[in-house]
């Protein structure tokens, strides 16, 4: 089972760096205080996961993160009976742990999970805030400090990979995008240690390449990839090599498109 679960308390870590670009932090805090589920929409690598980590630490709440995928089932979230020490015992999944203990459960790219996952989420996303565990006969009521947050990338939506309107309308929703150039420059500089002026050139390059989305590229360059590129440059790797490894190869396998991207790199950095 390729399930990524992380639980951490405020006391165990510092607040992850996040530079707000609007009222998203206030919106998260209001949704948490009013016990409302939250849906984050935006392209891959634009900061959704970092934002949730930042807010969980800021609120001092445990964070349970699940990276959704095609094989993720409702049992992966809620739990299952496992053989331990010769005995069959029930083991809570990350969603059940978050409901029992209180905290924030974050389902990243929720549309990638199987359809039975959304069925489990429905009673948690209305005024009931309940989690039925059919296998144990329990009906768990979420405590006040439980919050459900999900995210997905609308750019990948198609008829088989989308949230039904009946599911979307159970959430307070916010749209994320790549940060404004100055904010993105500061993020890349802080995360990589590279000088801000050199990071600004990377951000300008990213803006040019993002304009190719939907033409030669399925997805634009993420802020995460810019951080990777800046990190390699800061470590001493030549700019062209760092750019090829982080801004070109991850985006496409098409040799002609790669050549075009490298021409843009050359035009930016000489």
UniProtKB/TrEMBL annotation:
CbbQ/NirQ/NorQ C-terminal domain location: 184-267
Keywords in alphabetical order: ATP-binding, Nucleotide-binding
Domain ATPase dynein-related AAA stretches: 37-171
One GO molecular-function entry: ATP hydrolysis activity
InterPro entries: ATPase_dyneun-rel_AAA (IPR011704), CbbQ/NirQ/NorQ/GpvN (IPR050764), CbbQ_C (IPR013615), P-loop_NTPase (IPR027417)
Pfam family membership, one: AAA_5
Assigned protein family: Belongs to the CbbQ/NirQ/NorQ/GpvN family.
Protein name: AAA domain-containing protein
